[in-house]
Design a protein that fits this description.
Blueprint lengths: L1 H9 L3 E2 L9 E2 L1 E4 L7 H17 L3 E3 L7 H13 L10 E6 L9 H12 L6 E4 L4 E2 L13 E2 L3 H13 L6 E4 L3 H10 L6 E5 L7 H10 L2 E5 L17 H10 L3 H11 L3 E4 L4 H8 L8 H8 L24 H4 L5
Parallel strand pairs: 3-4, 3-12, 4-5, 5-6, 6-9, 9-10, 10-11, 11-12
Antiparallel strand pairs: 1-2, 7-8
Helix pairs in contact: 2-3, 2-10, 3-4, 8-9
Length: 332
């Protein structure tokens, strides 16, 4: 089993980040986002991560807000004990700083809490989860609109840089940042962000942002690579007739077509699945290519943003000290 997993892991291409001293980042990662917290959910997450390691995944994404740091860390530790991994150094682990800790004096303590949850000495990548700052306090979702406060971009980024200098994060970056937000970071950064993790898939192609990041040497990681879904809304990727037509013609799944397209854009995908068969299928995207005709068809898919800043908040209340436009992450 260990040799099979190692062979599958070796088949996944890796990306050398231009900033920081992290090991190369595998081009496909497993996401662990969840809004449910219970012992049953934690056990399911741990089992899914174990299954992913056995399938060949070596890149895992979590966040303080997800509540999945502990089961992820437990799974990695167990995989080392069982010989599926030689050591923790074989995996690339990303976590994220939540909005209630986006204050200069709370960044490092939050990272230390994350490392305690993971039972690890360092993160490969630490990201600011959103360009949104909220009053310090427990994580609440959805958040109250009146709890938003102005974001201290310089102070928070300086604290992120300190995390890297201390060796607690091998690389640092951001998530859900537009070119406007990145301009603010780059204007003051001593260490530029290595990664910007954003919603990216054939139904939300982020052309302006991906060009900008390429020019600045910032690697793009894609969350919701299979479209994601909000309650009551259709999935624009898995329900796409264009992608379905391409998948049937190529003998692939729609998910594989989407993940392959993202890989061909030069981005890394963070895909969540707790199903063993789909975990394996998601890794089977590196030994074939889309055709030029496929790419043209995908470029013409209608664009639809699923994740927006306003969805972080409950319906009631109002933004008193921050303009919603400052937190807007919709940029075509």
């Amino acid at each position: 089993m260990a040799s099979t997993a190692a062979a599958a892991a070796a088949a996944v291409p890796e990306v050398a980040l231009r900033s920081g001293n992290a090991r190369p980042m595998p081009a496909l990662g497993m996401g662990t986002v969840t809004t449910l917290q219970s012992p049953v959910v934690h056990e399911a997450t741990k089992n899914a991560v174990m299954a992913a390691i056995e399938a060949g995944f070596r890149h895992f994404d979590t966040a303080s807000m997800y509540g999945t740091e502990k089961p992820l860390g437990a799974a990695v530790a167990e995989a080392v004990r069982r010989g599926l991994l030689r050591s923790r150094e074989e995996v690339f682990v990303t976590s994220k700083l939540w909005c209630t800790h986006c204050h200069p004096d709370l960044v490092l303590p939050s990272l230390r809490d994350t490392l305690q949850n993971l039972q690890m000495e360092y993160l490969d990548l630490y990201l600011i989860h959103w360009p949104v700052s909220m009053k310090a306090g427990p994580i609440v979702f959805p958040a109250r609109r009146e709890d938003t406060v102005p974001f201290d971009f310089e102070g928070v980024w300086r604290a992120m840089e300190e995390c890297q200098r201390l060796g607690l994060a091998k690389a640092i970056g951001v998530s859900n940042f537009t070119t406007k937000h990145l301009d603010k970071i780059l204007a003051i950064a001593t260490i530029p962000p290595a990664v910007n993790q954003v919603e990216l898939n054939p139904a939300w192609q982020q052309r302006t942002l991906t060009r900008y990041c390429a020019e600045k040497g910032i690697h793009v990681a894609a969350y919701s690579p299979l479209g994601g879904q909000w309650p009551g809304e259709a999935n624009a990727v898995l329900g796409s007739e264009v992608l379905d037509e391409i998948a049937k013609a190529r003998g692939k799944t729609v998910a594989q077509v989407s993940l392959r397209w993202i890989y061909e854009q030069g981005a890394v995908s963070i895909v969540k699945s707790y199903n063993k068969d789909r975990l394996k299928q998601n890794l089977e995207i590196f030994d074939w290519e889309l055709t030029d005709e496929d790419r043209i068809k995908i470029s013409q898919i209608p664009q639809k943003k699923t994740v927006t800043a306003v969805r972080l908040f409950s319906q009631g209340g109002e933004f008193k000290s921050v303009d919603l436009s400052d937190m807007d992450i919709v940029e075509e």
